[in-house]
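Sequence design from tokenized structure. All designs in this work follow the same two-part layout: the structure record, then the generated sequence. An example of the structure record is given first.
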């Protein structure tokens, strides 16, 4: 069966990668789909997020990275995806993910599998990483090296343009 790991990945963290690796052991094929959450302001463009994920997932043989346009359930139907996989860090994640899982099931019948995040990465969030990095903090322990370099370049670019 093919599974999908959808998310914003702004940027991808070791927590996301842990969920993707574990999904790749449970399913035959995995699509990692970079989506747009209309409630969020992104630091990286969709193409940059796809590029960062592609580098980080290069060693995972049954994992492909793609852009997600439109409704997740339509994308799943079009790409023969049998299950949505999401990581759960704490109770707040569960409430939000439960609502999305129920909506996606009502729309299409697709199931959502929720994996508990590894305790090692449970405190991570892309939002916090953006904030710490934007204020000059070191986030290198939370993201792959290639992502850390891109964050540093993006923060420098934003500082240069006064944003
Ligand atoms: O990492 P995020 O921001 O929690 O990811 C949210 C994402 C992109 C997975 C979600 O917003 C999504 O599925 N977007 C696609 C559009 C869609 O189907 N929305 C309805 C979800 S019930």
């Amino acid at each position: 069966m093919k599974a999908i790991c959808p998310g914003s990945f702004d940027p991808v963290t070791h927590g996301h990668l842990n969920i993707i690796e574990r999904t790749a052991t449970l399913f035959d094929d995995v699509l990692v789909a970079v989506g747009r959450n209309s409630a969020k302001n992104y630091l990286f463009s969709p193409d940059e997020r796809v590029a960062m994920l592609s580098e980080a997932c290069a060693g995972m043989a049954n994992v492909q990275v793609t852009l997600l346009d439109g409704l997740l359930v339509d994308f799943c139907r079009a790409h023969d995806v049998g299950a949505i996989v999401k990581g759960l860090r704490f109770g707040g994640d569960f409430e939000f993910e439960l609502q999305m899982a129920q909506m996606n099931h009502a729309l299409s019948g697709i199931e959502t599998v929720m994996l508990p995040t590894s305790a090692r990465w449970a405190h991570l969030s892309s939002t916090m990483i953006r904030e710490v990095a934007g204020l000059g903090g070191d986030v290198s322990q939370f993201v792959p090296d290639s992502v850390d370099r891109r964050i540093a370049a993006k923060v420098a670019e934003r500082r240069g343009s006064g944003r």
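The CA atoms of residues 31 and 146 lie 21 Å apart. We note this feature because it recurs in several other targets discussed in the main text.
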